[in-house]
TrEMBL record:
Organism whose genome encodes this protein: Psychrobacter luti
Top-level taxon of origin: Bacteria
Record's protein name: DpnD/PcfM-like C-terminal domain-containing protein
Domain DpnD/PcfM-like C-terminal as annotated: residue spans: 13-56
Record lineage: Bacteria, Pseudomonadati, Pseudomonadota, Gammaproteobacteria, Moraxellales
One protein family per Pfam: DpnD-PcfM
Length: 63
């Protein structure tokens, strides 16, 4: 029998999210084109984010 003061522990899944940030400069005709170019250079690994680019950590309970 479990006493009134004792609580049963449950397992929780916690998501840990680290945010990295770096500013790159691209030449483009408009903002949309600039975003697409930035995405391309990131996906092509021409820009790589490192631990020095760290700005924040968040902890979320996964449901």
């Amino acid at each position: 029998m479990i006493g009134k003061d004792k609580k049963v522990e449950k397992a929780f899944q916690i998501e840990i999210v680290e945010m990295l940030s770096n500013i790159v400069e691209v030449l483009a005709k408009n903002e949309q084109e600039a975003l697409l170019k930035a995405q391309d250079i990131y996906r092509n690994e021409d820009v790589i984010l490192y631990a020095a680019d760290f700005i924040d950590t968040k902890f979320n309970i996964s449901k």
